[in-house]
Design goal:
With about 50 residues, the protein is mostly helical. The protein has four helices and no strands. The protein has one domain: lambda repressor-like DNA-binding domains (434 Repressor (Amino-terminal Domain), Orthogonal Bundle), CATH 1.10.260. Helix 2 crosses helix 3. The longest helix has 8 residues.
């Protein structure tokens, strides 16, 4: 399943580091999520959804 994290992050003008800071993870985690190399936990998915 394709995720839209990068698309929505760019639409809202948020950098990878800013998103990472808001959801309490490293920017490397955001990069991995955007490349679909990592599946987020339910908690992380929720945190991203409310940013």
């Amino acid at each position: 399943m394709k995720n839209r994290i990068k698309e929505l992050r760019l639409k809202h003008g948020i950098t990878q580091q800013e998103l990472a800071d808001k959801v309490f993870v490293s920017s490397r985690t955001i990069i991995s999520l955007e490349k679909q190399q990592y599946n987020p936990s339910v908690l992380l998915a929720y945190r991203i959804s409310v940013v």
